[in-house]
Write a structure and sequence with these properties.
alpha+beta; 253 residues; two-stranded antiparallel sheet; three-stranded mixed sheet; 8 helices; Alpha-Beta Plaits
């Protein structure tokens, strides 16, 4: 368990997020990270449902700097729990330690990433922008968010400011490691402008100028399946570099 006096953490408001990726792009820019698998912070999106009841979910995923980080326990000294802000950090001198593979496997959120699949690849992760914190500035991702969907403070202050928020969004692993984060999830989808879904499908079916219809009949339509949707589930811990790039490909620009 953390011995940090004031554990700092993040707040993410899914209801304000527009998936612009300013948070993750600003992180790459601040730390001069080229395109590729190394991502200190990530933004995941996935879809659920079938028209007219489709929903797109978003989750901001840096390292959550858990109060009880399982990665540190198995990193063989290559990682530490910093005492001022509660940041979970990799020792830069041991970034190629094979013990960090075990640390990455222990993290339920996939926060530790590698620059290749090689055994001695260099490991990277969010540092909580501890360089900025020491200068009195907020993490770069928080300052970059144009929708103010992110906040950062001590967990005590965040819990007071955002009462009733949870440490787990839908489809995320259970918060057994005490992640230093609070989430505000979007509520059930509501139609602000009422319309007839069947009439909408009729409009989508027809094409002008004698072109064949997009589909034969509204009655023939069937609900979509997960295999028909590019991102139908949340995958936070990638199995390899290739999957890491695919699941976060929109973070590149």
């Amino acid at each position: 368990m953390s011995t940090t006096t004031n554990q700092y953490g993040f707040f993410f408001d899914e209801t304000r997020c527009i998936d612009c990726r300013a948070c993750v792009v600003s992180c790459r820019d601040w730390y001069n990270i080229p395109p590729g698998p190394v991502k200190l912070s990530r933004m995941f999106s996935w879809e659920e449902g079938t028209f007219p009841s489709t929903v797109v979910h978003y989750v901001f995923a840096p390292c959550y700097h858990c109060a009880d980080p399982p990665c540190v326990a198995v990193a063989g000294g290559a990682m530490m729990k910093e005492g001022t802000y509660g940041a979970v950090l990799i020792d830069p001198a041991q970034a190629d330690s094979p013990n960090l593979r075990a640390a990455a496997a222990a993290c339920p959120y996939g926060a530790i990433v590698f620059d290749s699949d090689a055994q001695y690849a260099n490991a990277y992760k969010c540092t909580m922008c501890i360089d900025r914190l020491s200068q009195g500035a907020l993490p770069i991702c928080v300052t970059a968010c144009p929708m103010r969907a992110l906040d950062f403070d001590t967990m005590k202050n965040l819990q007071s400011k955002y009462p009733g928020m949870t440490q787990q969004m839908k489809s995320m692993p259970p918060p057994s490691t005490s992640p230093s984060v609070l989430f505000k999830e979007q509520g059930p989808k509501t139609n602000l402008v009422t319309y007839d879904p069947n009439a909408a499908l009729q409009l989508m079916m027809a094409r002008p100028n004698g072109l064949p219809n997009v589909f034969g009949s509204v009655s023939n339509l069937t609900p979509s399946t997960p295999t028909q949707v590019g991102r139908s589930s949340l995958i936070m811990r990638a199995a390899n570099v290739a999957q890491q790039i695919v699941t976060t490909q929109n973070d590149e620009s």
